[in-house]
Specification:
The protein is an alpha/beta fold. The protein is built from 14 helices and seven strands. It has a seven-stranded parallel sheet, sandwiched between helices. Helix 5 packs across helix 11 and helix 13 runs antiparallel to helix 14. The longest helix is centred in the C-terminal third of the chain and has 28 residues. The protein starts with 24 loop residues before the first helix and ends with a helix.
Length: 362
Amino acid sequence: MPNKKLPHSALNEKPGISSPEAISAAAVEHIQQFRKIQPSSNELFSGILAGNITALSRAITLVESTNTNHLAKANEVINACLPHANKSVRIGITGVPGVGKSTFIEAFGLHLTSLGKKVAVLAVDPSSTISHGSILGDKTRMEELVKDKNAYIRPSASGETLGGVARKTRETITLCEACGFDTILIETVGVGQSETAVHSMVDFFLLLKITGAGDDLQGIKRGIMEMADAIVINKADGDNLRKAQLAKLEFKRALHLFPAKKSGWIPTTSTCSSISHEGIAEVWETIHKFLELTKVNNYFFEKRKEQNQYWMLETINEQLKTNFYNNPEIQASMNATKKAVQNDEISPFAAAQKLLETYLKK
């Protein structure tokens, strides 16, 4: 039986009208061309002084760059900004992972902006030692603060830096101060007792704690506890409120075991809830009292001078290390020397001495 052509079905799909491109090719080209244009150091400096956030972000990216070609330009921007810096309060905020640092900083930052402050948050995210990547998700966490016109959040990867501070955080502080930010909050990775780098660049060191994170001996460990100017028990809300009050008393007793601070300041303990904002205003009042005391007895200004000296020496150490590993002769002999050490043909110490002698002769 011959096949008959089936009648046309109304269910058949008819060719529609193609949608226009969602992205304009002209706009893409314009953005790409704009990104290729690198502003001069004078343009970046002028933009920073004018409070231009784009100029500030581009300058910080330049400072954080590991490209040796960017070093001279970055130094020009930093040196130009120096006379306009040192007019802020620098606050270091640390605590174990999960203590609620980002949530606390958002609540604290919103309180400060409500008082008319301009707040810059330098959030340092941990870098993977395997992939060397970093999430940099602090802007996502601080979704309210990031929308505040008087706040600026800059996440940076910690890299290989001990203590959870990005290598160029100190220079970034200078740029933010020149841009008009009067309160700098530095959120660290929170690695326990390796926070000396943060302590050496801030005026006030705040340690966040939570209940149930360790036994009573945790309260008398030296190191990070000794450096703290205030201990705040976070997440003091709901069923956790009573535990937080008890933890506050325990840490208050523990602080009496430490020697008196050179600043003349007696560290305080308090509780807060970053969710309900209870106790947030009291934290700022504590910091304000600290600043009043240390400026009257001149400790604030002497500490700034000591910090400048410390970071000069740290910069020398960092530059010597960079120069050593970028030396062509060292790069040429490094792999062979590593293999010799692995095969026990030479001791690690003798190999290091040999490489250093090669570098110093150069």
